[in-house]
Amino acid sequence: MGKIIGITGGIASGKSTVTNFLRKQGFQVVDADAVVHQLQKPGGRLFEALVQHFGQEIILENGELNRPLLASLIFSNPEEQEWSKRIQGKIIREELATLRDQLAQTEEIFFMDIPLLFEQDYVSWFDETWLVYVDRDVQVERLMKRDQLSKDEAEFRLAAQWSLEKKKYLANHVLNNNGNQDQLLTQVFSLLEGGKQDDRD
């Protein structure tokens, strides 16, 4: 059984910089967001479950899901939010578990990038967890720049997630991304070589 490392972070924390680097080093990285996207394509398990629940109205003329409509249907109704969390969460977890078990047979070490790793209780899956961390003000600034948002809009998006400050005390290793990319990747190198990376102070 291979060693499994879970990677998480927050919006605009720099997680993709770490996972792209790991792939370039030859490691397998399962991307939970990409898995969800595949499942929501026509014929995918999430696509089928959503259409069965909400009906044909959520399908666009090109056969894809009408994501804005779907989001409004789910987020405007607490009962639909609960249904979505339960059913979509179950399907996603099953798919990720299948990928995990397959890679565990062939890889000595591999990574799983799960944005809601702590929130959705995936911790027990991993031998260790890495958190890509940035200070809140840096995160707000980067999110505003990346997505062309106002400060209020950026703050609103971040408020919907657990803070990185909270996650910092749950992760085994904390990668500080307040500096530049080279500084971040130096920390990743250190962990890959068996070093300890802890930036909780």
Automatic annotation (TrEMBL):
Binding-site positions, ATP: 12-17
Biochemical pathway: Cofactor biosynthesis; coenzyme A biosynthesis; CoA from (R)-pantothenate: step 5/5
Residue stretches in coiled coil: none
Gene Ontology MF terms in the entry: ATP binding; dephospho-CoA kinase activity
Keyword Transferase among record annotations: yes
Keywords, comma-separated and alphabetical: ATP-binding, Coenzyme A biosynthesis, Cytoplasm, Kinase, Nucleotide-binding, Transferase
Subcellular location: Cytoplasm
BP term (GO), one: coenzyme A biosynthetic process
Entry EC number(s): 2.7.1.24
Main enzyme class: transferase
Classification via InterPro entries: Depp_CoAkinase, P-loop_NTPase
Family designation: Belongs to the CoaE family.
Function recorded in the entry: Catalyzes the phosphorylation of the 3'-hydroxyl group of dephosphocoenzyme A to form coenzyme A.
Protein's UniProt name: Dephospho-CoA kinase
Taxonomic source organism: Streptococcus mitis SK597
